Every structure is written in structure tokens, then in C-alpha cells.
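Task: fold both queries, return C-alpha cells.
Query 1:
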Amino acid sequence: MGIAAVVLSAGGIAVAAVPGLGATACPRCYDLTSLGNRLYADRDDPAYRTLIDDADRRIAAFYGARLSEPRVLICSTASCYDRLGGGGEKGRALRNWSLMLSPAGINPTIATHELSHVEFHERLGSASGKVPQWFDEGLAVLVSDDARYLRPASQSDRCKLPYDEARPVIDADWWTAAADGVDRPYLQAGCVVSRWAGANGGPAAVLDLITKLRAGADWPADQFA
């Protein structure tokens, strides 16, 4: 079953209510043109292909391979992104179906961040609901190697703030904390996830976590106590 069929089947009436889902199912209905390899944009720019190829390589470097095959919807103008239902964010992932990039999100870090969400959810499958949003976001910060929120990978501690100031993100409501584009929750989540991954084998720890969650294990909250 193709992506469009999956989205239409899973989304139902939501496709009409949420433009991003509609655009995923029918990009041309939102004036997006195919640039090949599941990439759609409001203008033909070879740099977009290079951008997504780079993000794909980053995902594959972390996981060993990329399993997800999302549609990528790129807007070069604010009016295009508004038409897709976007807001003030730089990008947005729609489960494991697609990712949307705004004009401000057309760069490798943001593309990789959003593709990280898609890849993680693809690998988790029905276990996605077990993962708290702060971990999903912190992992995307780590996979995208976002210099805004993490120190260089060459440093043993990548946190940009003391760990005891980062940990409260675990108990906070992510959507409230990160409302209006506030950066601090990303600093906190990136710190906690990078510290956890560094202490447990890096990418191998994430793959092991995915395997255990898919096998029926509960979220290991004790590992972040």
C-alpha cells in the first residue's frame, strides 16, 4: 500500500481537516511538484535533493541504515507553508508518513531532525506511544548533531547546561514547555538523551531500546531517574 493510501486510510476525515495530511496524500493538490525520490516542493531547486540526501546519510550513519520512506514536502515561501497547515516551527514530522520543511527549515540540521522523528517512529511501529515526547525530541537533537543544543561530539559531556538543570524536562509537559518556540526544552532534552546514549553505547543503546519496546517492555523510566 502506498503512502497516499495509508494516509487516506488512517487519516479519514482528518485528511481534509489537517492540510499536512492532505498534502502528504496529494502533494500536487497543494501546488507541490515532484522532484523525484518522494521529494515535493513548490519550486524545482537541485539544492533540495542535496539537502535530503545529506539528511538521509546522517540518519543512516546513526542507525546503520534508513528504513523509513516518508514524503518530504518543502516550501520556499511562508504562504506555501501556511497552505500546508504549518505554523511558526521550522519543520514538522507527520508520524512516519512525511515531513514538512518551512523556508526557515531548509537546512541539513532541521531536515535531519525531522527525519529522525520519522525514522524513530518507523522503527518503533506500534510501540511509538510508549516513548515520551521529550525523548523523541532529544534524540532528534542528538541524531542531527544540533550545535545549538549540544557541544561537539569530540567532548565527553555534550550538555550545554548542568545536568540537574536539564533533568526536569523529564517530568514536564513537553508541549507546554516548548510552546512559542522556546529553546530551553531542546537544550534539556538533548542533554538528557546524549548523556544516556553516551553511557549506554551510543546508537546501539537506541536500537536496543527500540527492540525491547517492540517486544513489549515498558518505558525504562528508571534509567532516567
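Query 1 returned. Query 2:
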Amino acid sequence: MDSVDKYFEAVEQNQQQFIEALREVVAIPSVSGDAARRGDVVRMGEWLQARWEALGATCKRVDPGKQNLHGVELDLPPVILGQYGDDPSKKTVTLYGHYDVQPALVEDGWETDPFTLVERADGRLVGRGATDDKGPVLGWLLCAETHKQLGIELPVNLKFCFEGMEESGSEGLDEIIIAEADKWFKGTDVVCISDNYWLGKSKPCLTHGLRGVSYFHLVVEGPGADLHSGVFGGTVHEPMVDLVQLLASLVDSKGRIQVAGIYDQVAPVEAAEERTYDALDFNHAALVGDLKSDVVIHADERDTLKHRWRFPTLSIHGVEGAFHASGDKTVIPARVRGKFSIRTVPNMEPAAVAAAVTKHLEKEFSKLGSKNRMEMVETHAGRWWYSSPDHPNFVAAARATERVYGVKPDLTREGGSIPVTLTFEENLKRNVLLLPMGAADDGAHSTNEKIDRRNYIQGIKLFGAYLHEIAATDLAA
């Protein structure tokens, strides 16, 4: 039995112990977006730091500064940097994860207390943060601890970066990574992030692409105050009417963006990429089941995936300034703000996207002949990320996945954005791998968030197998 098999055996034997560790961290309500929970977020970071230091890691707590959260000035939770092992003959893997979670209340629809981990008969481990991202973050720690308990030397050096603000915009994180790129993170050979999910529910995957996101606010204003519709309806240009027409001009009911020039920026689908859609663990029946309604646009499953992963999409998110409470109110709002975003893909550049959107809205607004005023503001411009699945980092991860699960992983991209991926890649100048632990139906950010026992335990095995594969891989190949 080699060292990896011994490690696998120990993980199997320690399953309940690992679940109890997950129970302990889920019980810390580290909700970064709630001022009342900021102390709990800090406590979660300190828990991680103490546990790693007890293992023998060297840790550095970096305080990103302060933030104003709903009028309350708070200290940002610490970024925990760590190093476990410093053997110059070994490769160094840098890990990233986050220890904060989304808000969760029983009255939101949870079947149990969200901060009490519950193991159900079907193997679901239900609790806020179980899959996003406490399970994976804890998995790396348990991987290292198990190696030490067995007397098996970890085959690589580990550096890690665990933050407590990912669910609230990762405030201050980019600046820390940039400042520490040639200091704390110096010597990094590859980066691994486990903060995403399988494409389906039964087959593991490796993720090598993410869409970017450009976010816009569209403001239309006219009269100096809200007006009575019975007095002024039909006699003034109404900002809400203008806004609705402008928003409707951006995208059609089939999801096709109507902004001229947007699709001209998109990289074409080459034959090699087309083949990656063959035999993926994805079907419309499962998707419709998750949606609880058949509202899927595309008839072909690969078209659905392409529009999730590698084509741009435009979504309208909401309107500020309009009456939205229950009941009836006959008001003409004086100023309204519509919010929408565009998910971007290779080879789209944020500046070109914003320019095209601005030109489109100005043209459409001029058609209205309105005396109101319009302003479009870009509030965020996160870029897309793509990495070749043929990179040795991905090849090593694929071998590890096959050893644990007995199947070759799907090679997937994702429709969402993980901005820190690009921050690490550009500043450390090293390949970044997305290595998911959880499955597509885990319900991150939703009620009754869970991770399956199988994914949690096999994921801990996968982390160890990956580190052993990286140690034996020629990264220059």
C-alpha cells in the first residue's frame, strides 16, 4: 500500500471526526454582510489560524482596514496568510478559500437551524457554509492534519490565503495579494481554488474558465419630486416609462443582447472547444427539476451550456426609486435607477463593452423624444478568465480525480465570476486551477445549503491525491 492509499484509508476511518469538524465551523455564523455578525467572522478566521498553527504552520494575519456597512464603521475581517512547509526541493501550492458565509434565517425557508449542521438519511450535510466555502477550506486543513497523523510527509509546501469578505465583495483582498505577490507568495508554483461546483450531481469536474461581469446603473430623472398620476399622468414625461423602454431595448425574451457590436467582440467557438461539450454530465431534465419549472430557452443542451459559459448574457436585476411595497400607490416617481449586468467572455474587454452599452442607450433615449435626463454609470468591470485544461496543473488534477472517483473529470467552464482567480494569475504569474468539492445541487447561497457526505469525504481524498500528483508533475512540460 503506497502513501496515497494509506491516506485514503485514514480518511475513510475518520469520516465522523471530519463531519464533527464541519459541524464546529458551521456553528460559527460568520456572515460578513451583517454588522452584528462581524465578531463571528473574525472568530472564524482566528479558529482557522489557531488550528493551522497547532499543526505547525506559520501564519500571518493581515487586517485590510475598515468599511462603512449600512452607516456603521467596522474593521474588515482578517485575511489569514499561511505557510506549511518550506522545503526548497519541493513544489509550492498556494490555496485560496473564504471563511465567511451568506446570511441565513430559519424564516427564510430553512427546514432546520442553518448554523447547526444536520446529517440527513440521504447523506446530505445541511448547514450554511457547508459547501460554500467552509467544507472545502476545512478539507485542506484535514488533509494536512491526516498526513501528519499518519507520519506521511506532505509532498509539497503549502501557502494559503483565507479571507472573510468574499460574500461581500472581497474588500481589500486584491491589494493584499498584489502587495504580497513577491513576498509571502514568492516561490508559488501553482494556485488551487476550491470555491465552485460540479456541473452535475454525479460526475466530478475541473473548471478552466469563468465569465467576467460588467455592472451598470441606468438613471432617468425628470421632475423635482414624485407626482400624482391623476394630476400629471399624460402631461409629463415619466421617468419610469422611459426607463422601462430603455431596459427592454437591451435584451430580447430569448436572451439575445440587442446592443450593437457586443457579439463582434466574442471569440469564435473552435472545433477543439466544440468537442469538450461531448458527453458532459448535464441534461435538461435535471436542470428543469432544479428550476422547478421548464423555463429553459434552448432546445439543445450544448446550446444551454454555451450560453452559460462562453457567450455573453445580459440580465436586468431591479429598479430603485419605484413604488414596490404591497398595496396600490398612484405615484409617478421623479427619479428611477435600473440595474443590469453583462456577463463577459473571451475576448471581450470591459471598456469596449461599456462604450457599446453607452452608445446604445444614448441612441435609444434619443428616439424617445423625452425631456427627462438619462445617465449610465458602470459600477463594476470584472474580467473573464480562461486557462487551458492541458496545463500540467490541470493534468495532475485530472489524474488525481480519476484515482479517487474512477472516472475522467468533465472539463467545464462556469457562468459566474471568481475575480480573485485573475488576481492570483496576473500577480503571481502562475497557473490557477479550480478544483471543486461540491455538486451542482448544493444550493450555495440558498436555503438548506448542503454538501453530500460523499463529496465531502471524497473531496478530502482528492485534495491529498492532487498534492501528490503535483509533486510528481513536470510543471514545465
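Both queries returned. Flag for query 2: The longest helix spans residues 350-368.
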